[in-house]
Amino acid sequence: MPPGRMDGARTRKDLGGWDYLSRISCKDPFVICPNRQVIHGQFAIDTKNKDVKYACADLMRCNQRQMRYKLKKAYFNGVAADKVRTTSPLSTMTDEQWMQLVNMWSTPKHKDKCVNNKVIRGKVRFQQKTGSRSYIAHMHAVDTMEALVAEPGVEGKESKTPTEAVAQVLSSSKFLHNIGLVPATKKSCNGGDPTRVAELEAELESEKQNSLAVRAQLDALKKVEESEEARAKELEKINDLQKEADETNALLRRLFSLNK
């Protein structure tokens, strides 16, 4: 058995037959019955399907990598070469299999590979199987667009152009963003006909412009009202001063008349 291949965590090449999958522990996400017809778990699928077999093998391959990683972290990393245990820490693994793993981890080639992988992982921006930039989803969209462009025209119509294929496959609300013509922070409505979306955006922009114009008019009227109020207050003060002056003049006339 090659280094690192342990019972219960084999790849598809080591299966030797589909019967092996019926012996997976019940702790795994799903268990295949001996009749190979039903997967008991959250769903039932065809166990003879090629994609199902590949998915199961991929699941075990991932479990194998995780087990190797945990064993290396617990019993090898940070441990002196003369203090690394020579017996298997697991009851499901023989001492010979354990030493094969230890010998593989100790080779300079494997150590350099681990260092390089650590550097590469630090540069990863989008994971291959998660998020909106999933590699699988991205390649599926590319294949769909290429198929649309390659389709011959129907009833005299020309085949789709690359731009039309992209517009059909990608969401219309994300079209400009996906081809890099708008920033990622730009927000737009979800789905819908591209023409209708453009019309709604034009109407929205027109409403914004009208709103700004109305706002400017209201601000101007408010300033006029404020200036008229200020002028009215000034006139009121002038009238009050005029009355006071008239009263003072009348009082002075009386005083002059009494002195005479």
TrEMBL record:
The keyword Coiled coil applies. It holds the Pfam family Transposase_24. Residues 197-258 form a coiled coil. Keywords: Coiled coil. InterPro entries: Probable_transposase_24. It comes from the Eukaryota. This is Uncharacterized protein. It comes from Zea mays.
